[in-house]
Design a protein that fits this description.
globular; mainly alpha
Length: 427
């Protein structure tokens, strides 16, 4: 909460000065884009090796999915505290703290893996999950000051900015090994070292540059009830979402899209490795998948603004269904797996961008952070559950069975779309 004469996000405002929402929004989006490029490198660098490290430490394919699962579970654990910090203090402290915690997690994971201590490695991965939570919550910061006509575009630009770092990250196994060996580390830990440095840099950039704070400016210029911000219990935020048809659809759409994506992506490196794929091919596959997630998000945002949130969400669920059919029928054909993973990422993008814009529009500014935190919590819990089951399902039913399991999660979205449309017509 800011006091009289204090500029949101820190610093002093001259007496009588207001905030140009459009100017602050442009600056906020520019800073968020720069941070997402750096932080995205940290998020992507560990994706192609986390499962392989877990499998090497335990000697079990069933445990291979625990690295991604723990990251996703960590993201769920940190979703509410980071959203609560943002609600109380602004986006800058919330996002900055998340990146710093993730950097600490990377250091813990490297130490645990190098020592051969699997529980310590998983503890580091849980802290590392704060980076995933922060990467995702940045999209909400882009929506704080946006108007309805451009909210999808601004939000999607921040999602898109993750592309550069996240696509490069999975291809750092070779350079990572070259850096790790002179330091006496296992070659697989090189990408985690890059992640740790990237998260630390993202935290520093956020804390230094995200001024004025977009959420605090939105409250100041929009008349939001800053005094009560951050004090709403999570259960009350959840009740608000459940009572609001469009907010509920946004929550379910977000959770379904993320759960399908995580379930399949988590075990793809292990599946390909067992088929004889080289680490470079696995890294390329994950890079293409991440490109599908982020690279076309500005187009998705434009479609969401022009065509509508619900049609864009429905299109995303359809793309996810096509993706799991292709990936599930791929066997060990590397090109087919790549095609399925690209579509998997694209479907996720359609679902996340449209749902996030829908959630922001469905609720007043002072109620958004709590609802956004609950949504991200549910999203990451869904991903964590899917990731935890993915190794078991791969062992029991193969990659095709795992993809069939993932397809089930799109069904509630289609059901809620019909219900939300009826509610809109009735109102």
């Amino acid at each position: 909460m800011t006091t009289a004469g204090e500029a949101p996000g820190g610093g002093r405002a001259r007496a009588g000065d207001g905030h140009d929402r459009a100017r602050v929004q442009r600056r906020a989006v520019s800073v968020l884009v720069a941070v997402q490029v750096v932080g995205g490198l940290g998020v992507g660098a560990a994706l192609s090796v986390g499962g392989l490290i877990a499998e090497a430490l335990t000697g079990s394919q069933s445990w291979a999915g625990m690295a991604t699962t723990t990251i996703t579970l960590g993201a769920a654990v940190f979703a509410l505290p980071l959203a609560g910090l943002a609600a109380r203090r602004g986006r800058r402290p919330g996002l900055g703290a998340g990146w710093v915690v993730a950097a600490c997690g990377g250091a813990v994971a490297i130490g645990g893996a190098q020592a051969g201590w699997f529980p310590v490695f998983l503890a580091g991965m849980a802290l590392y999950g704060a980076g995933t939570a922060t990467n995702l919550q940045a999209r909400h910061a882009a929506a704080d000051l946006a108007d309805d006509a451009t909210r999808g575009r601004d939000l999607s630009l921040v999602v898109w900015a993750t592309t550069a770092g996240a696509v490069v990250g999975p291809n750092l196994t070779g350079p990572g090994a070259a850096v790790a060996r002179p330091l006496g580390l296992d070659p697989l830990l090189g990408p985690l070292l890059f992640s740790t440095l990237a998260f630390a840099a993202a935290g520093a950039l956020t804390l230094l540059l995200l001024r004025p704070d977009p959420l605090l400016v939105a409250r100041e210029t929009g008349g939001g009830r800053a005094a009560s911000a951050g004090k709403e219990p999570p259960l009350e935020s959840l009740r608000l979402v459940v009572r609001t048809p469009m907010a509920l659809l946004a929550l379910v759409g977000t959770v379904a899209s993320h759960t399908v994506m995580v379930a399949v992506m988590t075990m793809t490196p292990v599946h390909m490795s067992h088929g004889g794929a080289a680490l470079t091919v696995i890294g390329l596959t994950i890079s293409l998948h991440i490109a599908g997630m982020y690279a076309l998000s500005p187009v998705v945002g434009w479609l969401s603004d022009r065509v509508g949130r619900i049609p864009t969400l429905v299109a995303g669920q359809g793309i996810l269904l096509v993706a799991v059919v292709i990936a599930g029928a791929s066997d060990h054909r590397e090109g087919v797996v790549m095609a399925g993973l690209v579509l998997l990422g694209l479907g996720w993008s359609f679902g996340l961008v449209s749902s996030s814009a829908m959630l922001a529009e469905a609720l007043p500014p002072e109620r958004r952070p709590g609802a956004q935190g609950v949504t991200d919590l549910a999203m990451n819990l869904g991903g964590a559950g899917a990731g935890a089951l993915s190794g078991v399902l791969l062992s029991a039913f193969g990659f095709g069975g795992l993809n069939a399991f993932a397809a089930v999660f799109v069904v509630p979205v289609f059901a809620l779309v019909l219900w939300a449309r009826r509610s809109q017509r009735a109102s």
